[in-house]
Amino acid sequence: MAVVLTAASGKLAACEGLVAEEGWVRQPPPGSRHAAAYVVLSNIGTTPLRITGIRSPDFTSAMLHETLHSEGQARMRLLDGIDLAPGSSFRAKPGGRHIMLSGPETPLGENVSIEVTFDCGQDSSLTASLPVRRNAPE
Fold first, then answer.
1. Quick check: is 38 in a domain?
2. For the chain, how many structural domains are there in total?
């Protein structure tokens, strides 16, 4: 399933060559202040891309995390960006790298979509609409 992409408003331009697919947000339990988003980002362009930031108007904060497993315990580590060479992809998936969304502005029900914006530096960004789902799509 492809994610709908739109250029951000104002002076920001689209991240040339960036494609997002298979995007979704896991519906959090009632009362939770956090949700995780997953997406496959691909650079189909001819120049390298760097995702320098992630944000959402539907949450107070959005960060890129990686889940690390060590000695039977899982912990999250903040990542400072995503580098995408031409022809390469980044896959955010449950149990691994993901977008941590905190402070939802409204309750996240199933069949709702939220916006996530990927900043590519040099005043460019790309916004994707990600559906909220109870379970991972098959």
1. yes
2. 1
Render each residue's pLDDT in the chain as its tens digit; 138 residues.
Answer: 333 333 333 334 568 899 999 999 999 988 889 999 999 999 999 999 999 999 999 999 999 988 787 788 878 888 888 999 999 999 998 888 999 999 998 888 878 999 999 999 777 889 999 999 988 887
Nearest to 120 by CA among 84, 92, 79, 78: 84
Measured distance CA(17)–CA(39) in Å, rounded: 16
Cα first-last separation, the chain: 10
pTM: 0.83
Residue type for 109, please? Answer: G
8 A C-beta contact, residue 114 and residue 58: yes
Domain CATH code at residue 41: 2.60.40.1890
Among candidates 78, 114, 115, 113, which has minimal Cα distance to 97? 78
